[in-house]
Design a protein that fits this description.
Four copies of one chain form a homotetramer.
Chain A: E1 3-4, E2 9-14, E3 20-26, H1 40-46, E4 63-66, E5 68-69, E6 72-73, E7 78-83, H2 105-111, H3 129-142, E8 147-155, H4 161-173, E9 180-187, H5 201-209, E10 215-220, H6 231-234, E11 238-239, E12 242-243, E13 251-252, E14 255-256, E15 261-267, E16 277-281, E17 286-290, H7 305-319
Antiparallel strand pairs in A: 1-2, 2-3, 3-7, 4-7, 5-6, 8-9, 9-15, 10-15, 11-12, 13-14, 16-17
Helix pairs in contact in A: 3-7, 5-7
């Protein structure tokens, strides 16, 4: 079921190489100002452009099919569609027989009969995340007292942004790819969001974050480092305004505690690489190699901070 | 809503210092052999006993109220209750005014009116996890072709189990506490579990895992280390039997790929420590200190592997 | 899934001839006064006693296992259990082979393997409705500005209550059974409850009402008679205080309009009758007859008004 | 939440006087043959044309935005959109102040701020049912061993179809409207669909049916008449092939019993009538009258049988 949320409910549809990708949001508060131009800034952040990102160019013009009248939300389901235009008719069908390492081809070919849709990985494509970003824009509108800030803090093993372009260049020259870490911070959090079982703030955020393609890990506040600390180090003493430091990342016992929500997300390197890889040819029953062509990101993590923000906003709009 | 799952649906109830904790499982397959003795092994793994665990002793005798006849499940909702016996009537009410660092007291007192239940942290207690372990036992029964193995791989900053008891002793002597990391491994995974949006295997596992008290992070396969790798290193080449290594932790594109599911969970150090901590006295409006008495674990992470297994089994029973 | 509701969520468990029947309610507002004695009045209305009702006697003492402290709800899941005591060990197993006309035996034996629970019809028993009544008591507490009144308006084809006892006597003498119609009326309805798609007030009420065993029809306001009217007759003109008559039964376009909610529920005659009935013997593959013994109601509809009220209150508690 | 179903999940969006109405179906089995022409027959049955139906003409061309490739379903979410073309820009906004008897105007104006969308009743319009019919077409494809047949059995108080056109003419001449009763019959039902609590077959069918605008009642099998019968009359004896008659309408104890599913739905007369009606002017605070212009059905029930079939198919596709 391609749906997330109970009150602010987001459903995605569409395919990377089909007519469009889209999203329906049910439970949008009525009366929010909203027009197509509101999407431009976040969509631009997701668009390729940085070194290491794909040359596929989509205009990414949102069409608001329902739920908006006179540039305000009506409270009815809000459907947003992005037509696909720059589609190359790659024959992804072959990946059914010779699966790409790191991709869902193998598992999906066992689960579904791909003969039905041999186009571009269907819903597994990063193209679907344009729908998440659009839903995130609406969610942020509904959460105007909160501020969201996700940014890349590590790329290709380096914490120094000055090195990133050259790391990407080297990886590209080798026909290889890089990963990185995104940190997301939300200020203005109300106190008491979340439930002890099973809908803790971390549960819901991680649920949504792991639906972004390529995520390998998530940690809140001190994160994995907390497991090496003593309680007296990790615990956040209270002052008059709440927690006096933020080792918890803004969540205690599954509930938001008023401190900024802080978490980090580990993205793997792009799976599609030009370099030759070993794989199995399930059609002919023999070891084979694969060099992946097509217009892929060397380092798609550069495009992900706005997606992390979007799914975070979707979760919080559902909780508030 | 204290419920998880769609097909195999687990709902917890009860309070740490109330009459009982319990769980109802809806969607249990009919005809599974099940009796009270089946719970003994996993309940024992959760019970205190290791150095650094609480002296609170509960007999943990499961009472099967419904859904079982003649030592087999009937397919009707299965309710299991654990009576609370070793209850000390601590006055947790005071933590409403003087919140314990690291606990949900502060956030919960804003969210709810604790005057209604000043007993032992209500549902925020680790005591609730006995219900999760019980549900996990039933889930494992429903998944008899899978094998689950979670174990502690790091404690107090050390990967060497020979050092753990002495680390715990030192922390206890200091009135302090320790955390650690649990690794969970599931063998026999079918191929194709999970959905691309939004119910990837990682999404559901992390959702459930973060409902265990004290979790700060989760990572699958190569995890955070993957973000420093190149694609050619992290990608798992395919052989005749599927992935030839397991950097993905058994999941590609949100779907299980047949390799073992492998993930690690970071637990923070126990929040309740004997050592004096700074906190705020919200009643008197002044800085205060708190020394937490009561029967708490110095290192509750020693009791968590079976809980991690349990929530993993619950998720997989829902997906299969 | 034995659960109803999204915000005020009711889950039933237990079996007619098992240890207990019970209910867990999640989403109960905190701070409602509630103790075991609050259930007495409604439970008494459901209890047998009127002419034509079963001699099976259960003390129907609710045990509140969780979610209540100091005679007030805590907001945590509220579990209520009724132990079964007056259980006769009838062998219902035979109905697997020789199904009782009007019962679920035949369909259930195809759906499930009844060998697992040959006791009293499991969850199909009217005994389960004690759990609904208990949940209804809690729902009514949460809805204290509303008043509920369901009553029997027709029995055995007669609208005159003076005739009912004698109709029941005659049916009993013939080893036969009777049905009837219950009318439910809720005053104090807020305006605007419900949604156009798919959760209209009528959708949710009818969903819940048809889960009561023995219901054959439901109609709101003018009901089936409305289909014979002209618009000018059926439409309710508006006055200063809302609708000036109540042909709509209090619902327009799926939304409550502030007028009393009024609907009628048709109950079939009790299926279990002493009189000989034709059935098929699926074990021996031949036509057979069945005379049903045991302690059954000649006219269970006399016990249903409080059950109709209960499920109505459950729906409204979820909507408000 | 404008969604129905758990496995075959239907979500509607759009507005009567907006850009389009549409539906997304999640959980469609992959590989069903499906193209735009498959919708023609059912859409035609819903289209006006019979005497007494609206002159508003929409081409009702379904556009399949996603979930279909090469005229087969892919298993991904299926989105179907119907563009609105024959839109007159009626100012429905005035009905906020002077509500139309029988409509949701009054309740909706209390619930929402209609200033946001003063166009044609938004989601309350019968126009939305084109989305239900489209979803029904897909559901029927997924249920090809079942046959659906809903038809009008009563109109304006007459069971004789020869009288219907003249009854409609008379009502139209009086500026008035008529209602009627639709009977729906499904053959080929599998045995054992449905659950005792709370998702009986009748619960789910009635839930969906009451989301069709204008429904006032529903009854299964003998329906309200069953409440006047004795058990020996109403019970269906069993023969070798299951129930030997069908007083139950195909459902026992909430489960389908293999006999045809048979139910009747009472539709009220069209609420919008040309004849002058009393209403309240909430703007000026005085009694007022209203004559409704616009292109409305005198007898919309003539267009409803295919809608009843559609929601029935949606429910059964979810249950199977």
């Amino acid at each position: 079921m391609n749906t997330f949320g109970r009150i602010f409910r987001v459903s995605v549809f569409g395919e990377s190489h089909g007519a469009c990708v889209g999203v329906t949001i049910d439970g949008v508060p009525e009366g929010l100002p909203l027009s197509a131009t509101d999407f431009a800034a976040d969509l631009a952040r997701r668009s390729p452009g940085d070194k290491g990102t794909t040359p596929r160019r989509e205009p990414d013009e949102p069409r608001l099919l329902s739920g908006v009248f006179d540039d305000h939300t009506t409270g009815a389901p809000l459907t947003i569609v992005f037509d696909n235009e720059d589609v190359e008719d790659d024959d992804y069908g072959l990946f059914d027989a010779i699966p790409r390492p790191g991709h869902a081809d193998y598992a999906a070919s066992v689960k579904w009969d791909w003969a039905n849709d041999p186009r571009g990985g269907g819903m597994f494509s990063g193209r679907m995340t344009v729908a998440l970003v659009a839903a995130g824009v609406v969610a942020k509108k509904a959460l105007d007292s909160l501020s969201f800030d996700a940014k890349l803090v590590r790329l290709g093993g380096s914490d120094d942004p000055k090195e990133w372009d050259s790391l990407v260049e080297k990886a590209a020259a080798d026909g290889d790819s890089l990963g990185g870490i995104v940190e997301c911070r939300v200020e203005g959090m109300p106190i008491g969001l979340g439930e002890p079982f099973f809908d803790s703030v971390e549960s819901l955020i991680s649920h949504a974050v792991f639906s972004i393609p390529g995520v390998r890990g998530i940690e809140f506040g001190d994160g994995f480092a907390a497991s090496d600390m003593r309680g007296s180090q990790h615990n956040d003493p209270f002052g008059a305004d709440g927690p006096a430091k933020n080792g918890s990342g803004g969540v205690n016992g599954g509930l938001s505690n008023g401190a900024p929500l802080v978490f980090r997300v580990a993205f793997k390197p792009t799976s599609s690489i030009a370099k030759s890889q070993r794989t199995w040819n399930f059609k002919d029953g023999r070891q084979d190699t694969l060099e992946i062509k097509g217009r892929h990101d060397v380092c798609f993590v550069r495009r992900t901070p706005v997606i992390v923000e979007a799914v975070t906003a979707i979760v919080l709009a559902d909780l508030v």
